[in-house]
Write a structure and sequence with these properties.
alpha+beta; 2 domains; two-stranded antiparallel ribbon; 8 helices; about 25% strand; rod-shaped
Length: about 220
């Protein structure tokens, strides 16, 4: 039908119009696939429990910007590439000093002095000295001695542990040692993301999207 119309009218004009439609179709198809890949990666990050902020580091761009072209290309990237690569490959994390990797237990506060809790800043903030406990079977421990439990007034539930008061230290009642960190030589990150598999999937949809956007 298009060829018949072109023969009856201005063939050159028809070819220019058709090429223009092709440019628009390719640009929109690449844009749709690029956005689909970006949103898929964001959903994967959220499903892995890594949070919306990290999910939003996935961005996309389609080139040439602001123009239609049969050579349009899409790029999907992240501003947290090292973190994403770890979850893509299931990387092994080791201590920076090559000895122990300290993992906070639920007994340790999530943040200390506005920063992520570490053995060093916990000792400094609480004025305590963590004790090393070696275990042949299972992770070794960093333990805070001379602590006492704290309970919620309304429910009586355990809310955490605090450094024992002088009175408690004198009587010895209610004193306990609290495991603050597990110590392991290394940990392997779980593989949660599949960027390359998803990239192949969305790239394979481009021809379908081109036909969808190539309208009369």
């Amino acid at each position: 039908m298009r060829l018949k119309a072109a023969l009856k009218g201005d063939l050159k004009k028809h070819m220019r119009d058709e090429y223009r439609r092709a440019e628009r179709a390719v640009k929109f198809a690449v844009g749709e696939a690029t956005d689909g890949l970006k949103m898929t990666m964001r959903r994967q990050v959220l499903s892995a429990g890594l949070g919306q902020r990290l999910a939003n580091t996935w961005r996309d761009a389609v080139y040439p910007r602001g123009q239609v072209s049969t050579r349009a290309a899409g790029v999907v990237y992240t501003k947290a590439s090292k973190i994403m690569e770890g979850f893509e490959k299931g990387s092994v994390i080791r201590s920076t000093d090559g000895f122990w990797l300290a993992i906070p237990t639920p007994n340790a506060p999530k943040r200390v002095m506005g920063k992520k809790t570490t053995p060093g800043n916990l000792e400094k903030a609480k004025g305590i000295r963590l004790q090393f406990v070696y275990r042949a079977n299972g992770p070794s421990l960093l333990v805070a001695k001379d602590h006492q439990p704290s309970y919620r007034r309304k429910t009586g539930e355990l809310s955490g542990f605090r450094k024992a008061s002088n009175r408690t230290l004198k009587t010895g009642r209610g004193l306990t040692s609290v495991v603050m960190f597990w110590l392991v030589p290394q940990v392997k990150m779980p593989k949660h993301l599949s960027f390359y598999d998803q990239a192949k999937k969305w790239n394979g949809r481009i021809p379908e999207y081109i036909l969808k956007h190539w309208r009369d």
